[in-house]
Design brief:
The chain has about 300 residues and is an alpha+beta fold. It is about 30% helix and about 25% strand. The chain contains five helices and ten strands. It is elongated and about 110 Å long. The termini are far apart. The model is unreliable at about 25-35, about 55-65, about 85-90 and about 120-145 (pLDDT under 50).
Length: about 300
């Protein structure tokens, strides 16, 4: 290859003539083409990452958020590089595109930082647009003659909200509130979390509380007893018991010895029953012996029965 100005022989890798200093046109074209391709790839990556974050940022896990934020930061720097390079390579059009994507990347970095710092807060007691929730303040203790008779006979122990009760020598439970809701969220609905989804045409009655484990083994409350509702002294509905995990992001928790975890007791009822409901009696059958902890609940296991009644 020879210089077009002085005729001196030059190497293919040279960008200027070593003899006269003339720029080599062929090499400039190669730089332009490579820079253009790199710029296009960078801008496409930036666009895809920003769309993912803006659409799904609220439900992404923290690790993935940090990874995407790192990608956006690199894209931001690369976009600025494109702006600088565009002065000599892409000229005005390329410079404008680079500036636009640099701005978008900067905005996305700010949005992602806010998401990771604050998340999207949604309280379990919040009012859903498609259905209201009622807190425990809408209820008072209900006088149920049948339950009262069982209490008088010593077959059932009456419990109250915010009053701890001991279950044998293996756990202490405090029920703190009750509500109607369309879906059940954990206490920490940020990042990656699980929840109990709503069912069309139904509502959940949920009692919240805390459980402290005094047993020698882990307690899974789901297998440590049975719960049931009696609505308006007529309708019998099985209820579920779940413990939250220690980080408050799901209802798959097991209480380790001397650990305290949030507990929920819930049941799903039809909208029709929800609308007509006046009285709710919650009954809990819970094991009392340490040796039965860790096994599926059996009616033959030694257990105590507890009840709490509500009315609107």
């Amino acid at each position: 290859m020879y210089c077009s100005k002085c005729g001196s022989e030059i190497k293919d890798s040279d960008s200027i003539c070593s003899n006269c200093g003339e720029r080599i046109d062929g090499h400039t074209d190669v730089i332009k083409e490579k820079s253009k391709n790199i710029g296009v790839v960078i801008l496409l990556i930036s666009l895809v990452m920003q769309v993912i974050i803006l659409l799904f940022g609220g439900t992404l896990g923290n690790a993935l958020r940090f990874a995407l934020l790192g990608t956006i930061c690199l894209t931001f720097i690369s976009s600025l590089f494109c702006v600088i390079m565009s002065k000599s390579v892409h000229k005005h059009k390329g410079r404008i595109i680079g500036i636009i994507f640099a701005i978008l990347s900067g905005i996305t970095i700010i949005v992602m930082s806010c998401i990771m710092l604050f998340g999207f807060d949604e309280s379990p007691n919040s009012i859903n647009k498609e259905g209201a929730s009622e807190s425990a303040s809408g209820y008072e203790i209900n006088d149920n003659a049948e339950l009262q008779q069982e209490i008088d006979q010593g077959l059932t122990t009456s419990i109250k909200l915010n009053s701890p009760f001991n279950v044998g020598n293996i756990m202490t439970i405090t029920l703190t509130s009750a509500e109607w809701c369309d879906k059940i969220l954990p206490s920490n609905p940020h990042g990656v979390y699980s929840y109990i989804a709503d069912t069309e045409g139904e509502k959940y009655f949920v009692v919240h509380g805390n459980l402290k484990n005094y047993a020698s083994k882990e307690i899974d409350i789901e297998y440590s007893g049975e719960a049931k509702l009696l609505i308006d002294n007529k309708y019998h509905i099985a209820a579920n018991m779940e413990l939250e995990e220690s980080d408050g992001t799901s209802f798959y928790g097991n209480a380790k010895p001397l650990q305290t975890l949030p507990v929920i007791i819930y049941a799903s009822v039809s909208d029709e029953l929800y609308n007509s409901c006046k009285n709710i009696d919650l009954t809990l059958d819970l094991i009392t012996n340490d040796e039965n902890v860790g096994y599926f609940y059996d009616e033959e296991f030694p257990h105590n029965t507890y009840c709490i009644s509500f009315k609107k």
